[in-house]
Amino acid sequence: MSVYSELTNKIKNKTAVITVMGLGYVGLPMALEFAKKGFKVNGLDTNERRINNLKKGISYINDIDSKEIKEALKRKPALNATTDPNIISQSDAIIICVPTPLRKVKDPDISYVLSAAKMLKDYMRSGQIIVLESTTYPGTTREIIMPNLEKNGMCIDRDFYLAFSPERIDPGNPKYSFTNIPKVVGGFTKECTDLAKLLYSQVVTKVVGVSNPEVAEVTKLLENTFRIVNIGLINEFATLCHKLNIDVWEVIKAAETKPFGFMPFYPGPGIGGHCIPADPIYLSWKAKKIGFETKMIDLAAEVNRKVPHHMVERMEEILKQNNKKLADAKIFILGVTYKRDVNDLRESPALDVIDTLNKKKVSWGYHDPFISYLDISGIKAKSAVITPALLKKYDLCVVLADHSTIDYKMIKDNAKLIFDTRNIFAKKNITGENITRL
Ligand SMILES: NC(=O)c1ccc[n+]([C@@H]2O[C@H](COP(=O)([O-])OP(=O)(O)OC[C@H]3O[C@@H](n4cnc5c(N)ncnc54)[C@H](O)[C@@H]3O)[C@@H](O)[C@H]2O)c1
């Protein structure tokens, strides 16, 4: 039997062994979903702490209940969480979900993809399908993964199959999860795409094939560039509306009544997370390599970068209107993660706000139900328990992440002044003279 038919059969009858490399926000939900469908799944991660937690049935990702992990460990076949790369050779399908952050100089940090590719080279065998999911610049699958797989004398479509499939998961989104977000796959050949489509169709409701890995790579970058540009636009618009003394939230609500040609984006304290601040930069970096200037991306990144600093200016303004100087004020921050209901601090605008407050020597405290301690680049603090007495000690309470477990009515009743950068009070129909929204 050909390698292709063998893999097809194994996927169809669920005897294919699947290894997910990188068990983070992307890899862990996917590994659990394949396990739920009856596949034998190996979860491979270089982070021993994460693997030890998984072995004990403890989740470190918000959207995943520890119960789900415990069930996967008990099920037959059981989820195998490991740091041992030897399991690569025992797998039929390998899905790579390693990080693709930015370096300090804001260039793509492709080191995790390189280390994953090196592991594949050292441990892969013939008869496997490999899919890269990490968001990256066009050409990564071809230029980094492919040469490592071919190094052992193995040949695509004869010994292995290779595709790129971007992950579109949106942590904290109660409506769309891994299974009901359509998956795009682009293989090097028709056989690669067909096998990758078959693999994902076991766990997601819709799979869309595209002609090659580069199309799939850029699809993800278009989606996130669309977001960074529109978020930049609405953040700039919000600043302008504030200066014109016009309520930007009311403007958006009115514009939304147009049934076509408009899609609402909302202003906030700045962009964060592992995707929106980083992914478009992967594209602009690649564009620069071929002498193309991505003006829209660069401008959106610049506009968004300034937003946290602008939030501090707004705080200063609100305090001034209440006869208080920022330098003498005590600020309380509600929510430090990059968005609501996630435990992810990566690139969070709250960190820039805090950094600016520190530079201005302003006293601050915070509460975040997901982050008990802050210990990042010299920032050390403990999440405070919110009580009426605590709120009364602060001059201004600033909502930076609108977590759903926070009692906003209690905040409104007890905080002296509130700056709401997320419009959460209006969404909850809570009004008060002490509330200023972005
Ligand atoms: N977080 C999101 O919302 C999201 C959404 C869509 C796409 N993505 C993309 O998916 C990728 C993964 O993101 P994430 O948020 O899950 O990252 P993460 O940091 O939460 O998880 C990645 C994991 O990979 C592990 N790892 C690193 N090198 C490894 C190796 N060689 N072998 C095995 N494990 C290794 C790390 O220890 C970590 O646990 C990134 O490219 C990201 O841009 C993320």
In a few lines, what is going on in this structure?
This is UDP-glucose/GDP-mannose dehydrogenase. Helix content is 40%, strand content 15%. With 438 residues, it is an alpha/beta fold.
Shape: elongated
Number of strands: 15
Tell me the CATH superfamily of the largest domain: NAD(P)-binding Rossmann-like Domain
Q: What's the number of domains?
A: 2
Oligomer: single chain
CATH topology of the largest domain: Rossmann fold
| Unreliable runs | none
SS strand fraction: 5-15%
Indicate the radius of gyration in whole angstroms. 24 Å
Distance between the termini: 64 Å
Order of helices and strands: HEHEHHEEHEHEEHEHHHHEHEEEHEHEHE
Q: Give the second-level CATH assignment, the architecture of the largest domain.
A: 3-Layer(aba) Sandwich
Number of helices in the DSSP assignment: 15
What composes the largest sheet? 8 strands, mixed
> How helical, in percent, are the residues?
40-55%
CATH class of the largest domain: Alpha Beta
Helix/strand-derived category reads alpha/beta
Strand order of the largest sheet: 3-2-1-4-5-6-7-8
* Distinct small molecules: nicotinamide-adenine-dinucleotide
Average residue pLDDT: 95
Family: Belongs to the UDP-glucose/GDP-mannose dehydrogenase family.
Protein name: UDP-glucose/GDP-mannose dehydrogenase
InterPro entries: 6-PGluconate_DH-like_C_sf, NAD(P)-bd_dom_sf, UDP-Glc/GDP-Man, UDP-Glc/GDP-Man_DH_C, UDP-Glc/GDP-Man_DH_C_sf, UDP-Glc/GDP-Man_DH_dimer, UDP-Glc/GDP-Man_DH_N, UDP_ManNAc/GlcNAc_DH
Keywords: NAD, Oxidoreductase
